[in-house]
Every structure is written in C-alpha cells, then in structure tokens.
Design goal:
Structural class: mainly beta
CATH topology of the largest domain: Neuraminidase
Number of strands: 59
Largest sheet: 6 strands, parallel
Number of helices: 8
Radius of gyration: 40 Å
Shape: elongated
CATH architecture of the largest domain: 6 Propeller
C-alpha cells in the first residue's frame, strides 16, 4: 500500500536521518512493511489545518528474550492501521523505534513481531496509514484479543527541506483537541521523536540542523475527540526572514496571506494600505498572536482557539458583571444577546456588491465584511457553532460595588477595567461592564465601557461608542450632535431604535432643515433610495411617495414644489436640535416664565427664587445663523426693579398691548392670597405702572394665562374654591366681568387637577383668528376652541394625546403660519409639563405640533403629534412659555424654568433658559456617515493605546 500521510491530532514528524545508531541493543525485528507519503509537501514556511483523531499509545511490559507479536484484525471498512513499537522513552524528545509494520497481516491489517533484548515498558503506537484511513480494529497480542474494536487515526503533513532554526508549532483551534502529542517520522516511516503539548496546549519544535524530509503526525492524548489543529512551519529565525519583526517568517506570512513589507501584495490585498505590517488586518492585534496565540505566560490567551484571524478584524471582549451591592445576584450576557450583537458588528448586509464595498472600507484582507466579535462572558457554549462567539475563557468575574459607608453604587468599567482585566489581556481584549438596567455613563473611544444586560441593541450601541461612533457618525466629528438624523441609518442613531445594523454611508443625500426638497426628494429606483423611503415612513412616520420619491418633510399633508423648512429629525421619540444656541439666563425660578416682544426687544420675565420679577432682555433677532451649543447673539441683559409690590407676586403672565399708540407689556399677577392685579411696563418711561386690583368672582389659585391681540386681551385663571377655569376679557383698557368656562353643551367644565393651570392662545391666518384654550380634565390635557358668539368652548377634534402621563403646571401654545394650499390652517404648538402617576415632582417637558397625514381615500388626518426633543426624559422644568411672531421670528422660541435633576452622578443646571430654536429648524447639513470607516480606525487605536503595544494604527481624522 502506498498512500500519503496527512496531518492529524497527534503529530508525527518523519526525518531522513538515516544511518543513526540506536544506543541500546533492543532485539530483532521480524515482518516489516513500510509506507511513504509524498503528496502536498510543505517546502517552506506555511500553516496547515489538519483534522486530528485518536492515535493510540499503549504501555506494554516486555520480557527480555520473549518473542511478542501484535497484530490487527477485523478492521473497519476503509481503514488501514499501522503499528509502531517504541523502546522505553522519556515524555518528550528523541525515541527509538524498535519495530513497525503496515500491511503484513493481509487485507491492510498490520502485524509486527519483536524479541526484546532487555525487559521494560515499551510503547505500542497504533495509528492510521494516512488521512481518511482511521477507524477501528481488534488488537491482538500473541493471537489473543488484547483490545477489541480499538480506535485509531491521526493527522498528517509532510515537510521537506527543513532548515536549521525553522520551527514547527502546533496551535489548538475551535472545537479541536487541546492536549495532544506530536510525533516526528522519517521518510522510511520510522518515529524518531515524540512531544506532548505543554500546558499552553502547544508544541514548539525548533530544528537545530537541516532535515531533508519530516512527516508530522498528531493525535489527541488518550481516547479523546480530535478535531482541527493548526500546524505551523515558521521561518522567522532565518536571516532576513522577518523584516516586520512580528515573529512570523516571510514565507509563512506569504502562505497565510499576511504582510511582511509595504511592497508586498497578498492575494488582492495591497500591504501598503495597512498601517503596520505587524498587524495586517488593522484590528490592533499582532499577526503572530492571532495565528499562534499569546501563550508565553499564564493565563494563556488562546486567540486562535477562540476564533482569531490575522486576515479579518476581530474584537475580543471580556464581559464582567458590575454589582450594585454584595447580595445582588450575578448576571451574565446571554448567548442570544451575544449572538445579536455579533450579528450587527458582523454586518448583516446581504447584497453582494455592498458586502464587498463594506469589506474594502474596513480593509479586511480576506475581503469579507464586518468585525468578528468574541465574548468571554463566563458561559461555555452548548453548540459547537458558537465556539468562537463566546465562552468561559477565564476572564469573566463579578466586580464588587464602590461603597462609602453603607452607601454602595456600581463601579464603572472605565474606572476598574485595568484592575479587573489581567495584564496578559491588555492590548488584546476590550472590556465591558454589564449592568441589569440602563447605562447612565458611557465613554467614547475607550477600550472599556458599560453595557446593559438584556438589551442587545443597546449593548451594541454602547460598544459602538467605544469604537469611535457618536449618535450622528464619528464621535465629535460634527459641530452639532444630531442624535436623530434621518440620513444616518445606524443603530447608533436614536431615531433608528429598532435598527440592528451600521450605516455604510451610501445612497442617501445630505439634507438641511432650513431648505428641504419635498418633490422628488429621494431616488426610489435605487436599492438605497427605496430603503431610505421605507426608513422615513417606518422610523419617522413621514408620508412618502414610493413611486416618485416625494417626502412630506413639514407634515402639512402636501408635497410642496418649493423647498420647505421643517424639523426633519423629529421621529417622535426625543431628539436634539431644539437645544442648540441655548442661552442660560441669570434667573432661577420655580414658576412659569413669560416671553414677550416689545419693539425690537425680546423680554424674558421670570419670578426669581429671591421673590423678584427678573426682567432680562435682548435686542438680538435670535436668528442664530451659526448653530452652536450655547449663545445666540449678545448675552441677554438684566434689569432689577425695587418696586415693593413685586415681593407679593407668586404667579403671572405677560402680553403686549398698545395704548395711545404706545406698546406696553401688560402683566397680570396673583398674590399669595389669590387676588389678581394688573400692571403695565413701558420702555419710555422705563418701568411699571401702579398695580390695579382686578375684580374677580373668586380668588385664584395656581397660575394664569393671557392671550389676544394688541387691543383685546383674554385672561384665564382657576378658581380657588372649585378648581374650574374662568375667563375674563379686557377691551379698551377695561376688564369685563368674569365668565364661567362652559363646554359646547352648556355645562361647566370638570374641575382641573391640583397644580394644573389653564393656557390660552389667540392666533390664526389673517383676520380669521381663533382663541385656543388648553384646559385639563382633572389631570388630562384637552384642547378647546372658543366661540365668541355662544361664549362656549368646544373640544378640538385634534388629538392632544391626553392619555399620556398626567399633566402638571401651565401649558404653553404658539402658532406658526404654513404654506398656502395645504390642509393645515397653520401649525399649532402645544407644550406641557407631564409627570408619571405617583411622581408629580418628576415634571418632563413634552410637546405637540399640528400635523396632517395622508389616509385612505385621499383625505388627511389632522392632529397634534410629537414635535421634537422637549419630551425627552433629560429635560425637566417648572414652567415654560412659547413665542412666535409672524414676520419677526424665524423659529419657535421657548423660555423654560428648568428643573434641577440628577443625571448619571452629575446635576443638570437649574436656571431659566431661552431656547431660540425650539422647533429644531437649524441651518446645518446633515450627512450620512460610513460607520465601518470610523470603526476601522478606532478599533485599532483603542486597543493599542490601552495595551501600549506600539503598533501603528490609522489616524483619527474627524
């Protein structure tokens, strides 16, 4: 029989070291048949993956002068056993083979007979003749069955022209054998060396002299499952064979497709595109530890066994549990969540062309897309297919809380990673601290971060931050942090909460909220364009035309031929642009402020915590053409008044009027006893008129509201005795008697809830002005319109989402004209403070705006929908007011008495603040970004900076 030897789990190396003398006279050998394997030899540095299976090694006691015969019978179909008998040997190193046989027993069975010259414990080796010839056979000794159905096999690889200083290294692979034995066999089939794997699960054999031929044979120790194993021939010690000093020879690197020089090309990959030749794929891991592992000291890092590939970006993650106290049960990242996170980073793109483009963007030398994730989460996989996805690899642990006295809090990954992760993992693993709830603190471009356990999407999102991604593309890569860009379909984007992939930056044009094309806005004929339209419809709830690519950006029910202004970022979940150009004022208040314009002055009035009426003002037009975090023109100025009666004010509202051709600010306020007063503020002379008491049917409680035009003013307040709203009208300087607020049925409205106040707005197109009122049904907000003939209030057909959280405080309303020709009479904004049931102190700002959506039959559904960021849980307040004056204002203005709150260990500011872009319409180009390009850069940088490995990485350019 002449079959080639192939590599298996125990390694045999065969060498042409003929003429060697045995040191002992071991006896006579009878019946010898040899086999040689000359197929697919290695002639230089190379790496081979071989399938290993059992090579049986049996200690046998032999007596000097007593003949013994071993043979196989009843071999399984297709198998071919080979027998070797070794003299008593040490554990590792050279051995003396005293007998061997392949086919002497007929029918591919083996038989050897030996008469030992000395007594001792010899070693009988039973293996397959070559790859694919393993199986079972009965082993007989002196014609008696010694082991019925003995398994045998092996893995094989032939090496030729081995040079002095070359190394042969075994490397464990996923689902393969860990502890194994390597045999070296010469060209005549003679075993001349035997090596068991060290505790690092590897054998390294460095040749001190040249060998013309060596065959390697490997098998698992004992009767253990075999599986794949890597056999590496490394030429790095040869002169000029390791120019990049990564401990891998040039021949080996050419064989596996990694780089040694910038002038190299490996396959279709140009090495000049790699930042460091020692890290071909640019993931921050040296090529040598990805191929061989990091196994020079304990704890060993078996990267190849865990799935590392020097030709594809890998991300190894240790996931610990950050405990809140000493008794909280330890939790782990679930395999299901690990799989979902890995799917996102692995790139779920299915289109062949886009997969190739994404792979080239990442500069993966294997031209496959995505980053492969490997989690040490403290749980062993039950499915072999998950062997490279997650495992119990020795790093996972429980991190104790940080305590001060009896108060304990969870540690943060950023603070503990260098202590909790072993030094052998620095520069190899990223670190994730798992917590049961939401993550309140994250760090961008850092090797460590917190993740929420139980939410794969959020965990992937936080991991994206650590790799340089913000909510709008590269972290800090844009002057404006657009959390909800429509043009950025990425799981990093708050607007794509159900999205489980990263953006590739392709096929979506930039937009600008101050000029949005509605007609033919998107090209629907392309894959990316059609997908973008779907995103706009499903993620942002926009009306879109899938045939022509129209988008109703301003939600007015029509596709406008001319560009429109709109808050395109609004996805109804809370975003970002309303906060820009914010102007913090000097006042600190716990009551509703007032925003009113007098001439070219914009006044911001508030009740300061010191009991004064703070009057702050600016002459800036508040257009703020350049978006910025803070500031809109010159900072507002403040005027202090020393009027004694101001100390009595506990609630107020303000409205512009004209008397005798002079613009004034009418202020109506309530004192602590519930009495209402009016005063007027003028610029010339600068100051207030003497307050005048208003005749009312009842004392007032909570806050009050003014609305109207410059000659007629409506006042709404709440009775202290019944809690019902009241209406009062001022014309030509005189207040008419109070009117009870009645519904369209003539009945009094239900009393408003404690702490809830009415709000009014008179607005509309041209002379068709309407008085709108926001009253509450107990604690549920309802919108009404006033009929000046019947003097009754009718429920608006526009839904105000009254079933949301209970309302508190005083709402605010504003009116913005809309382009003619649409179904909307204008855009009504309704802002309110809402608090969860049972938590009235937790007042969250929420907002609604009037929109029109297409429905079946060509009609429109008109109602109040989410307007922007203000309902975000991060924005709380005591009171607010809105201002939009047609012909003067470019944007909706919001004045907010902000409430102090705890936010991840820090406190948000408590002050009155002006938000001049409360509608989110700012002049800023919103572009798409390629997440893969950003992560390509930062995957390497975060790892290298943490481990100080000295590798070169791509430069962060954003």
């Amino acid at each position: 029989m002449h079959r080639p030897l192939q590599l298996a789990a125990v390694v045999l190396l065969v060498s042409a070291c003929v003429g060697r003398e045995d040191p002992l006279d071991l006896g006579d050998v009878e019946d010898e048949v040899l086999t040689r394997d000359h197929r697919n030899p290695s002639t230089g540095g190379s790496a081979h993956t071989i399938e290993t299976s059992t090579i049986m090694e049996l200690p046998v006691a032999l007596t000097a002068g007593r003949r013994v015969t071993y043979e196989t019978r009843n071999r399984s179909a297709g198998s071919d056993p080979v027998l070797h008998l070794l003299a008593p040997v040490t554990k590792n190193g050279p051995v003396n083979e005293v007998a061997r046989d392949d086919d002497s027993a007929g029918d591919y069975n083996a038989r050897l007979t030996f008469v030992p010259a000395t007594s001792g414990t010899y070693r009988l080796v039973v293996r397959a003749a070559w790859k694919g010839k393993g199986g079972t056979a009965d082993l007989l000794r002196d014609r008696s069955v010694f082991w019925p159905g003995m398994p045998f096999g092996g893995g094989f690889q032939r090496f030729e022209d081995l040079r002095a200083d070359e190394e042969l290294i075994t490397v464990p692979l996923p689902n393969g054998t860990h502890h194994h034995t390597l045999f070296l066999v010469d060209d005549d089939g003679r075993i001349f060396e035997r090596h068991e794997s060290a505790p690092n699960q590897s054998v390294t054999r460095r040749f001190t002299s040249a060998l013309s031929v060596a065959v390697a044979m490997v098998g698992p120790n004992g009767i253990n499952p075999g599986g794949p194993l890597r056999l590496v021939r490394n030429d790095h010690r040869l002169a000029l064979h390791d120019p990049d000093e990564d401990l891998l020879g040039t021949e080996l690197e050419a064989s596996i497709g990694t780089c040694s020089r910038t002038t190299d090309s490996v396959g279709n990959f140009e090495c000049s595109s790699a930042a460091d030749m020692r890290d071909t794929d640019g993931d921050g891991l040296r090529d040598d530890i990805e191929l061989l592992g990091k196994v020079t000291s304990t704890p060993y890092q078996f990267l190849p066994r865990w799935g590392a590939d020097p030709r594809h970006k890998d991300l190894f993650l240790e996931v610990d549990f950050l405990a809140a106290d000493d008794v909280e049960p330890t939790q782990k990242l679930s395999p299901e969540d690990a799989r979902a996170i890995a799917t996102a980073f692995g790139d779920p793109e299915t289109h062949t062309l886009y997969r190739l483009i994404n792979a080239m963007t990442l500069r993966n030398p294997d031209f496959e897309p995505g980053i492969r994730l490997h989690f040490d989460l403290g749980t062993a996989p039950t499915d072999p297919a998950d062997a490279t996805l997650y495992g119990n690899w020795g790093g996972h642990n429980r991190v104790p809380p940080v305590c001060s006295g009896s108060t304990c809090v969870r540690a943060h990954a950023i603070d503990v990673w260098s202590e909790q992760m072993h030094v052998n993992r620095l520069g190899v693993f990223h670190y994730l601290g798992g917590t049961p709830g939401a993550v309140t603190r994250t760090e961008a471009r850092h090797v460590a971060n917190n993740i929420p356990l139980g939410s794969a999407h959020n965990a992937a999102h936080e991991t994206g931050h650590s790799l340089g991604l913000g909510h709008n593309g590269p972290f800090d890569g844009e002057p404006i942090d657009a959390n909800c860009k429509p043009t950025y379909p990425s799981l990093m984007n708050y607007a794509y909460g159900g999205w489980d992939g990263f953006s590739d930056g392709e096929g979506i044009s930039s937009i600008n909220n101050v000029s949005l094309n509605e007609d033919f806005a998107v090209n629907p004929s392309t894959t990316k364009g059609a997908g973008f339209l779907t995103h706009l419809a499903t993620q942002f709830d926009y009306d879109v035309d899938y045939v022509d690519g129209h988008v109703d950006w301003n939600r007015d029910g029509i596709y406008s031929a001319a560009p429109v202004r709109a808050y395109a970022n609004n996805d109804g979940s809370g975003c970002e642009f309303t906060k820009y150009n914010l102007a913090p004022l000097t006042s600190v208040s716990t009551a509703s402020p007032a925003l009113v314009r007098l001439g070219n002055y914009t006044f911001m009035l508030s009740l300061d915590q010191d009991g004064e009426l703070a009057i702050e003002y600016t002459t800036d037009d508040l257009s703020c053409p350049t978006p910025a975090t803070y500031g809109c023109g010159s900072p507002p100025l403040r005027w202090w008044s020393n009027e004694a009666w101001l100390d009595d004010m506990v609630a107020f509202d303000a409205h512009r009027i004209v008397e005798g051709g002079v613009q004034k600010i009418l202020i109506v306020y309530r004192d602590d006893g519930g009495t209402l007063y009016e005063t007027k503020f003028t610029m010339i002379p600068f100051g207030f008129s003497t307050p005048q008491e208003l005749a009312t049917a009842s004392t007032a409680v909570d806050e009050l509201s003014l609305a109207g035009d410059e000659s007629r003013v409506y006042l709404a307040y709440k009775r202290s005795d019944t809690g019902r709203p009241m209406l009062k009208v001022r014309t030509l300087g005189y207040w008419a008697p109070d009117e009870e607020v009645r519904g369209s049925d003539g009945n009094l409205l239900v009393p408003m809830g404690a702490g809830v106040s009415p709000a009014l707005l008179e607005a509309g197109p041209g002379a068709n002005r309407t008085l709108y009122a926001a009253f509450s049904y107990e604690f549920r907000l309802r919108l009404y319109t006033f009929d000046p003939v019947s003097r009754r209030f009718s429920r608006s057909p526009w839904d105000t989402m009254e079933d949301m959280d209970r309302i508190t405080g005083k709402p605010a309303l504003a009116w913005v004209p809309m382009p003619a020709g649409g179904p909307l009479p204008g855009r009504l904004y309704l802002f309110s403070l809402r608090s969860p049931e049972g938590a009235p102190q937790d007042t969250v700002v929420e907002d609604r705006m009037l929109v029109a959506n297409h429905v079946w039959g060509g009609n429109h559904l008109i109602g109040l929908s989410d307007a922007g960021e203000h309902q975000s849980s991060s924005l709380r307040g005591y009171g607010l007011d809105l201002l939009f004056e047609p012909g003067v204002d470019t944007n909706l203005r919001l004045l907010l008495a902000r409430k102090q709150q705890e936010d991840g260990g820090s406190q948000s500011p408590r002050h009155v603040e002006l938000r001049p872009k409360a509608d989110g319409i700012i002049d800023f180009e919103q572009r798409n970004w390629n997440d893969w390009e950003i992560m390509r850069v930062e995957l390497c940088n975060t790892l290298v900076s943490a481990g100080s490995t000295g590798l070169g990485c791509p430069t962060w350019i954003w």
